Amino acid sequence: MLAERDSLLRRLHELRSEHRDLDTVIARIEDSLHDQLQLQRLKKRKLKLKDEISSLESRLVPDIIA
């Protein structure tokens, strides 16, 4: 169980890092008015990463029974 949690935390860290990197890349592309198709692809990737991050975070939070 602990190994699975560590694995999830590592994956979460990787996804967050990639998400931040995409922020930088998208900002540069928007500033220089490059290829709009590439910009759309990067934004879709960023949204997918956000969904994956949310999913992993919810798996890491224990269920609380009220």
Question: Helix proportion of residues, in percent?
Answer: over 70%
Provide the β-strand percentage band.
under 5%
Q: Rg, please?
A: 16 Å
Mean pLDDT: 89
Cα-to-Cα separation, first versus last residue: 24 Å
H/E element sequence: HH
- Give the assembly state of these chains: single chain
Shape verdict:
elongated
Give the beta-strand count: 0
The main sheet comes to: none
Sequence stretches where pLDDT stays below 50 over 5 or more residues: none
Can you describe this structure?
The two termini are 24 Å apart. The protein has 66 residues and is mainly alpha-helical. It is elongated. It contains 2 helices and no strands.
